[in-house]
Each structure stands twice: as structure tokens, then as C-alpha cells.
Amino acid sequence: MAQKKQRFGSALSHGEAHHAEHKRWSRRDFLSATGLMGAGSLVLGNLPLRAFQPSPLLAALAGGGDQDRIIVLIRLDGGNDGLNTIIERGNANYYNLRPTIGVTDNNLWALSNEYGMPLGTSSLQPLWDNGMMKVIHNVGYPEPNYSHFRSYDIVASGSDADVVQNTGWIGRFLDNEYAAFLEAPPTVPPALQIGVQSNLVFKADQANMALAVSSPQEFYQIAQTGQLYDTANLGNTPRELELAFLRQTANSAFRYATTIKEAYTRGKNQIDYPADNYLAEQLAIVARLIKGNLGTRVFMVEIGGFDTHANQLDAHPILLNRLATGIKAFFDDLAFGNSGLEQKVLGMTFSEFGRTIYENASVGTDHGSGTPMMLFGGGIGNGFTGTYQDLSNPDPYTDPSFSVDFRSVYATLLQDWMGNDPNLVNFVMGQAHPTIGGLVPTAAPVLGDNEKAVLLGHNPSISEQGVTEIKYAMLADGPLRLQILDSAGHSLRTLVNEYKGRGSYTFKLRPSDWYLSPGVYLYRLSTGGKVYERVIQLN
Fold first, then answer.
1. What Cα–Cα distance (Å) separates residue 145 from each residue in 76, 125, 399?
2. pTM score > 0.85 for this model?
3. Residue 512 backbone phi and psi in degrees, to 5
4. E strand or H helix at 406, and its extent?
5. d(Cα 521, Cα 24) in Å, to the nearest integer?
6. How far is CA 112 from CA 92, 372, 392, in A?
7. Number of other residues whose CB lies within 10 A of the CB of residue 403
8. pLDDT tens track for 22-61
9. Which residues does 233 contact at the CB level (< 8 Å), separation at least 6?
10. Of 117, 242, 253, 330, which alpha carbon lies 20 to 30 A from 12's?
């Protein structure tokens, strides 16, 4: 066998350099974790004026419809070994490079005559056979970084390898979607993470746009009681009274409790999920919230342990089995009773990098580059995208080049699955990336500019001279702000700033009461994190 490549810090044999990398992660993880309260309060600073391009990401919350598509990100933490996940059948080079850990053909189920997966993932076969699973070969990026943490930051942010980007690709998208996040925040979390710390994927300029629940147990506490912290069983000692006050304050600040509790109560898991499977437990929660019509359109779950430097055959097959059985249960639950929900949900696996094409002396693999992504969902079809890693001319120091840039996958999901304009996609991604035709069913853009509310317009009052009636409707309860702006978009007057119930409203504007001179203005309705504007001529 050719010499095995070694990168400083990438292998267990590098001793303290490798362990120091994990220690840095532990410290950073502790320092960066905002916890549930950080995500619950979600404070944003001054946001710039945006072009309010309608998008279907969070459309049709109240009434459903074809545009309310959902993405479930499934993180394979540690760097998944793609070559032992999707195996090129009969490839002699694969078995020469991996004489001990290579998965033999009699231990595979067939995706095709050319490719297979380990038998422990056979619960995915019905999804593949029914056109609900696709494989993207050898996903990576130029000049790959082999640190877990730097590479994950690149994958989460969508940046080039030599650029430090402090916001995530979904965070930037949601920041654009929620232009009024500060002024009129939504009562539904834009994104929801279970089992992970506050994550760069969802970070916007000023805050993390996802509600981060650190464990299923913490989530159950919220879903069943509407509170994060129990206050019922505290006594009357000074310490307990002080603790009760702090807990009550924290519970009051958690803005999403009511909607989560209501959705969790409405939704039901209707199939049995595999036991002792942490990923499945997270996916069961996501399924129940989707079935309960929570309205969140981006979820993230994770399964760790993929940093398989040693004894890979002991750990990796178990991880793949948990992944496969959890995903199968999730989509069976969504499809139960011919609900059709599986058609609106797209699951996507991703990992910070792959593993070396060689097995190492510890019967494992070290940090490598390209790794497959897998997509799951009703109606997406089956098949392969990209080119499998070329194992015929191995280099001891460099993995075969990637075939699909991960940012092309992101751009495709934003444009085709979520139905967004290419210009908006380019803005979110920071540059243009080619999309992958036919990867997912395309969504037509939403017509009109009304999602959470309806800004009906304005007209002169029939009964009151000098009064203009501004008419609007709320499709869901929530905070609302109605403002007058100058033609450049600068706020001049706040006409309404209060919590409004679902229904139709008319605001009677007499310009002299608000010291507004004749001229052209804008009026802006902000609610549910969204912004709606129209031009008005005041006399």
C-alpha cells in the first residue's frame, strides 16, 4: 500500500496537536453557547432597509398550501466516511486502500448495479425504491481545511476556505426574510435546533435566528408545560423566593413557549421510532411539530461520533444504522394516513468533511475532503449527482478532488426547493454558484406580497374630511407596528405599536394630527417579523 498521508493535527498519532484541537472546541463551545434563553430572547440591532422580496419560505402559515416547504438539516458531526457510506461495488482500488475496513459486496444492499450501501442502512431501501432519496457524490470545496472547527465554519457559513464569515447561510436568508424581527418579532421560531448548541448555520448579523434547545428533555419541558423552568414546587424561603422570581422572569421572556406547546399538543407521532437512538428522538420531535403546524420551516438535528480515527468498524456501522432507521421512521410518520406531508419536507445530511481514502494503522480513517450528501423527501426521485471519488491513482498526501461544491447544493435548495429569485440567492450566498438542475422539484415563487398579514391599501374617508383610511388585516395574533416613512425610507411617525389579534383593522390618519406636511410618503406594516410597504400621497 502507498504511504498514508498525514496532516498535522488530523490524526490521533499527532498526539497533543490533535487533542488540543478538541480542547479548543470544548472551550469555544462553552463560550459561544447562548442556550435556550439566548435564542428565546433573540435581540437584533438596527437592521438596514431591505428590498422586501416575497418568498415562500414561511408563506401560508395560516392556510397551508403548496409553498410551505420545510428543510430538515441532519448534521453528521465529526466528518463522515463517505467511502464506507456509499460504496462503489467491485472497485478493487477501494479494497486495496481499505483491506480491513472495506465493506464487502455481500454486506451491501444495491442502490444500483454500480453503488451500494451497508446492510445496516437497509431501512433506507424503501425510500430509494419509492423515489424519496438521492445521493450527491463527493461534495467538498476548494483548498479544504482539515480542522473540524474551521471546516465546519466554512460549511455552515458558505464561505471560501480563506474567508472568515461570521454569519450562516440560513441565518442570512432568515435575516432577509425577517426584516422587522426587532420591531414586530414573530411568535413562531424561524428555525429550530434540537440537540445542538446555538449554531453558525443560523447566525445573522446581530443574533442567531434559530431557537436552540440543548436536548429533547429540555424541549419536552417547554412543550408540555409552556415553561422552561418549573416554579410550582418551590417553597417560601428567601432563596426559593428569589429563585422563583428568576424563573418566572425567564419563562416570561421565552416568547415561543405558547406556539410550541400548542403545536406539540396538536401533533402526534403515529409510528414507533427506534429506541436508544438519539437522532430518532430528535426527528420524532420535528415530525410532531410539523404535524402540529408549528410554522417553522427550517429544522436542524444532529448525530455525533463520526470522527472515526480508530476501530472504525466498531462505531461507523452503528452510526449509519441509527441514521437510516431514524430517517425511515421520520418519513413514515410524516406520510401516515396519506397526509402528504412527506412531499413538503426535504431532509439533507451534511458533514464538515470526509475521511481519508486510506485506512490508517489504527483501523480507522483520518480527516479527508469529499463526502456524500443524501437528500430525502417525497417526490424528489432517486439517483446520483456528481462524480464518485477517483481511487485509481491515490496520492498519499491529497485526497481526490471534490466533484460538487457544497454551496451549489445550498443555492439549489434556496432557489428551487424554497422558490426564491436567483438574485436573492446570490445575495444570501455572497456570490453566484451554479445550481443543480433536477436535484429537487422546483417551487413556483409566491405571487403577491402577503404572508403573515395583508396590507390592503388606503383610501380617503367618505365620512371624515381630511382623513385617509389605512386598511390592513392580521392573519395571526402578534405584535404589530404601523409607521409613516419619508420617500427615502426613514421612519417619521409610529401610528400603531401594539399586540393585535387576528382580524381586520382600519387606521384613520389625519396628517395634521401627526404634523405631516403634504407630499409623498411610505407607510409600513411590520408584523410576524415581516414588512409590507405602500406609497401614499398626503394632502
1. 17, 33, 12
2. no
3. -65, -30
4. helix 406-412
5. 53
6. 18, 16, 21
7. 17
8. 443 332 332 233 232 233 322 222 222 222 333 333 333 3
9. none
10. 117
Q: What's at 174, amino acid-wise?
A: L
- Which three three-digit cell numbers place residue 486? 419619508
Relative to beta strand 519-527, strand 478-485 is antiparallel
- Write the DSSP assignment of 407-441 as a string of letters: HHHHHHIIIIIS---HHHHHHHHSS-----TTSS-
Cα Rg of the chain, angstroms = 26
Alpha helices in 103-213 (DSSP H): 125-129, 148-157, 169-177
d(CA 82, CA 94): 12
- Cell numbers representing residue 347 in the block: 431532509
Instruction: Please choose, from the candidates 308, 313, 304, the residue with its C-alpha nearest in 3D space to the C-alpha of residue 277.
Output: 304
Distance, in Å, from the CA atom of 378 to the CA atom of 35, rounded to the nearest integer, reads 33
**Summary count for the chain: helices (H), strands (E):** 13, 19
Question: Angle between the 169-177 and 422-429 helix axes, to the nearest 10 degrees?
Answer: 130
- Calpha distance 323→305 (Å, rounded): 12
Q: CB–CB of 346/335 below 8 Å?
A: no
For 528, half-sphere exposure in the C-beta direction (CA atoms, 13 angstrom radius) is 24
Q: What structural domains and CATH numbers belong to the chain?
A: 12-43+70-216+277-429 (3.40.720.10), 453-538 (2.60.40.380)
Question: What burial class does residue 507 get, using C-beta atoms within 10 Å of its C-beta: 0-12 exposed, 13-18 middle, 19+ buried?
Answer: middle
Between strands 491-500 and 478-485, the pairing is: antiparallel
Measured distance CA(234)–CA(232) in Å, rounded:
6
What share of the chain in percent tops pLDDT 70?
81
Grid cell of 538 as nine digits = 398626503
Q: How far apart are CA 507 and CA 530, in angstroms?
A: 19
Q: Give the other-Cβ count within 10 Å of 527's Cβ.
A: 29
Three-state DSSP class for residue 313: helix
